[in-house]
Structures are given as C-alpha cells and as structure tokens.
Amino acid sequence: MSTLTTSPAPPLPADGLPISSPQRTLTVALAGNPNAGKTTLFNALTGLRQRVANYPGVTVERKEGFWSLSPDAPPARLIDLPGLYSLDAASLDEQIARDVLTGRASSHTPAPDCVVVAVDATNLARNLYLVTQLLEIGRPLVIALTMFDLAARQQDTELDVAELEEALGVPVVPVVTTQRCGLDALAAAVWRAAQEGASPGAGWRLSARAEEEIASLARGGRGEADESNARLCSLAGARYAAMIELYAEELPQDAERRASVEGARSRLAAADPRWWQEPVLARYDWIEQVAARAVRAKRGAAAERERTPTERIDRVATHKILGPLVLLLVMLVVFQAIFSWAQLPMDLIDHGFGSLGDVVRASMPAGLLTDLIVDGVIAGVGGVLVFLPQILLLFLFISLLEDSGYMARAAFIMDRLMRGVGLHGKAFMPLLSSFACAIPGIMATRTIENPKDRLATILIAPFMSCSARLPVYTLMIAAFFTGRKVFGVVSVGVLIIMSMYLLGIVVAVAVAWVLKHTILKSPPPPLVLELPPYRMPSFANVVQTIYQRASMFVRRAGTVILAISILLWALVTFPRAGAPAQGDGERVQPSANAREAETVQPAAGASNVAESAGAQTSGDKGEQIRNSFAGRLGRLIEPAIRPLGFDWQMGIGLIASFAARETLVSTLSIVYNVDDGGEQSGSLIEAVRNARRPDGRPAWTPLVAVSMMVFFVLACQCMSTVAVVKRETNSWRWPLFMVSYMLALAYVASLVTFQGGRLLGFS
Amino acid sequence: MSFNFQRKIAQPVAPHAPAPAAVGDETCLNCLPHGVGARVVGVSGDGSIARRLMEMGVVPGARVRVIKAAPLGDPLEIRVRSYHLALRRSEAEAITVVAGD
Predict the structure, then answer these.
(1) Residues A191 and A212 in one domain
(2) In the A/B pair of chains, how many CB contacts fall below 8 A?
(3) What pLDDT is stored for residue A621 in this prediction?
(4) Is A442 within a domain?
(5) The domain containing residue A120 runs over which residues?
(6) Which of B48, B51, B83 sits opposite A123 (nearest CB)?
C-alpha cells in the first residue's frame, strides 16, 4: 500500500492552492449514511482492488481501495468511512470518520483531497444532514446522488439536480450503481474538485452569542495546534474545531481548554437552556431551504400516498403475530443450512486434510519433522478450515438479511426481549449465529454501535451451544443414555441435549445481566434504529462481504490457531517416551521424574495393567501420551478436577479440548488406546464404558458424563473463539477475561452437578 | 412551518390524549394514536439520545406519524422525513408533538 503513495506524508498543499504534481496519489474519502448505497458504490468504484483492516487501536474497520479518476494519473486512494448519520463523535465510528476527514486518523493518511458523500435521493433531508457537517469541515466535496432511479419512480416529488447543485454549492452527480451509470461523471467531478481544492463552506451561521463564543474559543485554540494540524487551523479549520469542542458531549482533555469550554457552555446555557440544539436546528433550517428549492411536488400526485412495497412487506414482516413467525422461519432456514448443508463440505475438508496427512506421512521418512508437519501443521490448518463452510454460509445469510433490510426488522421485533437482559435488539442475530459457531457470531456483533453492549454480547456468545459441542454430547449420550426413555416416548438423550442448550442460554442471560450491572454498566442502550426500505441485495456486495469475512478469519485467526496446534502437538509429543530400555514390561515408573513422585499415583500403575492388554502400537501411543507434557499436566491437574468426577485421562482430554471442543473425542481415543477408528466408532464408546479407576470402579458413570457435558457447555474451550475475540477487541484483556470467568463458571457448575448428584444418590 | 396549527387543534385527535391546553394540544409521541400525522414541537432532555433523535431529523416542525408498535408492544415504528425509524416508548416520551398535518 505504502509503495503506491509516491510522496512522503503529509503531502498537503497549502489551502486552496492547485496541486502541483499530477503524479501525486490523491486521497479521497467516501462518506454516507448507513443504507445510502455507500458500500455498493465503494465496490463499484474500486472493484476487487480493496483491502480491509482495523484502525490502529480500535475495532472500527477500515476499508481502502484504488479508484482511477483520470487516465493520466495514478489511481486515487479511496477510503471508505463507516456508515454515519452524523459527525458529532457520539460513537467511535463518528470519531474515526472525523479524524480521517481532518487528517488526524493516522500519520500515513493525509486529510482527503476530496470527500465523496453518498446521498440517498429517496431520503434527501436526513442524508443532507451529514452533508452540512462535511461542508463545515471545509474539504472539497462531491455528492453522489444514489437511488436516483428509485426516487424518480416511486415518490410523489421531483428532484431538480441542477437546482440542488446550485443550492448546495457543490457538484451533485446522480449515480445508478447497479448499472454503472454516472460513475465516470463522478470520477471527473472528484478530479476537478480535488484540483480546485475549494469548498463553499457552511452556508449558515449560529446566533450572534454562539458565534462570539466560537470565535473566542477558536482564537484561544490556535496555540495548541501541532504541525500536522496546520491545515485544520486555517481560519475555517479553527472555527470548526472550536465549534466541535463547544458542542461535543465530552470536554477536552487539556485542563485550561476544558475550563474555557465549560465557561462558554455555561454562559450559553444561562441565556438559553436549549443552547446545544442550536447547530442541529440551524443545519436543518438550511436543509429545509435547500429542499424547498430543489424538491417539487409532482404534478398530479395523488393526495393519498399509496403504500410502498416496503410498507406492504412490513404489514407481514413486523405484524403482531405473523412477524415473529416469519422470524422463526428465517431462523429455521439459517440453522438448517448451517447444520446440514455445511456438513458435506466440512466432511470433505476433514477427509481431504486426513488423506493429505496420510500422503505426506507415506512419502516422508518417519520422524519428528514428519510428525510435526502431519499432526501439527496439516491437522492444525485442517482444524481451521473445517469451520469455513459454516462461516461462509452464515455470512451469506447475514449479508443477505442485512442488505435486504430484514436485519433491522429482526432487531425491531426482538428488542423488547433483549432489553430485559440489558442488551440491544441488534444483539439477537449474533447470538443466534453463535448456536452454529461463536466465531461468525462474534464477528457479526460489529453492527452494535455501543462498545459496552457489543462487548457484553461478545462475552456471552460462546455460551450458545455451538456445533463443536455436539460430538462431545453425542459421545456421552451414546455411551450412557442410549435406549432410556422417559414416559416411554421421550428419549433421555434428547432431553439431556436440550437441557444443555437451555443451560447455555440461561447462563448467558444471567451473565449478561451481571455484566451490564457491573463492569459494563451503562444506561440501557437507546434504540434509534432506521428501518430501511427493503432492497434486493446486490450479488457483488454479498460475494465481497463473504470473501472479506472468510479471508479475515483464515488469515488472522488462522495464524493463532496454527501456532497453538503446533504447541499442542509438542505437548503430547515431548518428551519422547520409549527409551528402549523401558520396553513393554513395567511402564509404571517411566522416567522416575520428580513430578511423578509428587502426584503419587498408584493409579497410573493399575490402569497400565488394564491397558497393556491393548494393541502394542496403540499401547505405545498411550504410553507416549502419559509421559508427555500433556500427560504430566493431566496428572498435575487431577487433584483439581477429581471433585468434578474426572480423572487424569479426562484431564488430558480437557486440556486438549481447550484448542477446540471436539478434540476431546479424538484425544480420548488416543488416551484409551482405541485403534485409529472413526471418532464415533463403537470401540471408543466401549472403551469409555470400560475404563476403570485404580480401585476398579468405572471411571465414567452417567453422572460423570453429565458433569462433563455441563463443563463443556460453560467453558470457553475454543482457541479460534479466543483468537477472534482478541481480534475484535484489539487486546488480550477481554479474551483472557472471557476464558477465565467461563472456566470458573464451568468448574463451579460441574462441581455442583457432580457433588450434588452424588448427594442425591446418583452415581 | 407553524402555519395552520390552530385549525387542527379544534378536532379531537386521540382518545387518550391530554385535554387541549391553551397553547395547543401538545402531547408526547408515545401517546399519539397510530396513523395520526403530527408535527414535532420539541425534544426534551439533553442527553445523547435527544441529540441523536434530533440529528436523525426529529426537530421542531418535522412531520411524524406512528406506524405501529413492535409485536411485544415496544419499540415503536415511526415515519419521519420520508423514512422509517424504530425507537423505544421511553424515547418517544421525550418527543413533544402537536397532532395534525
């Protein structure tokens, strides 16, 4: 990216001067309201030449691409700003957008040479609000009038583009993005505006009293400006900065500055308690004047407005009874897709990596390197990619629901329920997605604006029983609860699985409530949510979204997962067992190490005898695991997990399952020396049933199985989730917090289950 | 903007609207019957919610209409400045309107 920026940053010409070098890479920012067609426009302008990253230190996504403005200049850098209704910096998105527009976002992003703002022609007044704020900033501005075709067709009013251009004082270019109409004209207008470098500025003024305060703040503010803000502190810039300070919700950091802003505010408040509304009212007054010039009622338009298609759809989609039913149906389809349609590609990937591993193992000399490649790298990469079909499908649905406008309706319907827990209606879809897999669910929380609400949603998402828990549930059910029925009809197994799902939901609700009343305390999130008109999702947009999400998952989460897989492989592989002297006679005291003595395990001896009946090779494998670091860890934690009903072999399974839950099943197969059978093979079920404690009692009982399942419902055993939370929150703090509190909850719940169950006489 | 209020005020607009006051039958958006057009008189409070509502175009003089309530009774769907907005009843309470087009 940086190689394409030919001049060193910040390459800003002085205010108003024409740009001297035609070879300089121009920077253009794209702004617009949510649902104004900004993303579609961005995709159409940049094609596939774009990349997504985060702004440094925050979770706001930063999208950039290249856009050819003129054949004899390098393509311009096009920065896609977050979708915004306003620039008043109430949210992180708005703050970032303002920083980008004023050139303060990062050292290598200069203030844009031109700002393109997507304005929805069907919703002119509200969209123009953002335009008024962009005019205040004083960058060259070009308006891309989107949905122009819809406005011409649907509405009872007529829009005069030339008149609008005149009234606003900036170029207005109607575009129909789907047909690529107007894009060349837009490029030409942006090119011209960037060359001229002029902006008409704001066309309105505040009351004399307010202007006086702003002017005095602006004079005082000049001194503190640093060099990179030189442009901002030109006369218009200083006025703008002072106005933002005066009307922002927060106060400036600097103490002296804070005092002068506070003074100005209290003087204004004394004269008019609603002083803070003044800029908003002034902007809307001006918008009304612009609209009065440019918008005319169509001749012959019916006095009674006929229903729009959106209103007709909403008569069903948000109907008192039908609305929730439609939502249920949508949920069913999404779940069906994720659970069953994704199965085939997931199996293919799984088998593909399995056979790749076999081929590699066959063609390379046996040894550590081969083991590392097969068991560490290939199995690790496979473990990541196996989730890809579910993620792709889920994001297909999420982007379809989002782009069509239905997602806002789902939030509208569910808000009342979600608010009971202190969450936002928008948290519903991410939580629902988490039943398939928490990873896309957590990634989908980006639609929640308030960072605290978003964090609360992220922190409870892993409680939703995801598909990776199913292999564990099914193994436990198959081993201990098959054939049992309640009242002769309902199978106990189904009841247990259902209770596990329910347990996750109940705990999630409780945790959300606690979080929202303690560390994430914030007033109940307001719901001011636009219900946009239904629109046909654009194929290109959907593909682009899916591609970006998938590649982000594979790249970022993938690297962490790969590293941890290799670590886990090392933990079960080292130290190498089987100095030949130890042969197959007495394996009880393998390396006579200190830790062995410490954990005093006659247990190891007894279970060894039982196991030596197993096949020779798998016996070696079991031996290897017992002596590996993982095995030692298993024995080390045994005292801690014994109250839950678990022994050290299950301990190894637990440790391994922190990589991914379903790993428990494959680890148990290794620990119990089950010969490479399929994961759900009968032999593993038999082995689990037959495993014995040192004293000859069965290691697993139905109660242990339930305790294990409860642990799996509540513990965050998924490094992919941890990696994604790290990515989404941009710190290790929250993922570590999540893992620890979930582990604590899982431990306590498992303890209560096992000990309580014993007290009640279960075994 | 403020033309013609007087004429409309005479008509009873809402079954549970407060009795017409001397200056006009001001009521809150939450109390406005569904489907009845109204104009915004003001947004009370000075928190971020009031600010956000005004930025979204709910400013004095703007036309609003309550379309419907969500299936569970809250939030409300309103139409303002030719688009649709969902907001909670508690937020609608802060919006003073006067019924009539």
Answers:
(1) no
(2) 117
(3) 64
(4) no
(5) 2-12+26-196
(6) B83
DSSP letters, A39-67, are HHHHHHHHTT-EEEEEPTTS--EEEEEEE
Task: Kindly calculate the radius of gyration of chain A based on its CA atoms and give it in whole angstroms.
Answer: 31
Q: Answer yes or no: do B85 and A530 touch at CB < 8 A.
A: yes
CA–centroid distance for A209 within its chain: 45
pLDDT in tens, A647-684: 888 888 888 788 778 778 777 776 776 654 444 455 77
ipTM above 0.95, yes or no: no
Does residue A489 contact residue A361 with C-beta atoms inside 8 Å?
no
The answer to whether residues A109 and A56 belong to one domain is yes
A318 touches chain B (CB under 8 A): yes
Q: Are A635 and A601 in contact (CB under 8 A)?
A: yes
Beta carbons of A527 and B88 less than 8 Å apart: yes
Choose the closest CB to B85 out of A411, A419, A528.
A528
- Asked if residue A17 is part of any domain, the answer here is no
Do the beta carbons of residue A411 and residue A434 sit within 8 Å? no
On whether both A216 and A188 belong to a single domain, the answer is no
Kindly report, residue by residue over A78-102, the tens digit of the pLDDT. Answer: 998 888 888 876 666 777 888 888 8
Domain identity same for A627 and A739:
yes
Tokens of A47: 């094609």
Q: Touching check for B77 and chain A: CB below 8 Å?
A: yes
Q: Which domains does chain B have, with CATH numbers?
A: 22-99 (2.30.30.90)
* Number of independent structural domains in chain A: 3
Is A458 domain-assigned?
Answer: no
In order of A49, A252, A588, A601, A648, the CA distances from A604 in angstroms are 60, 65, 7, 6, 9
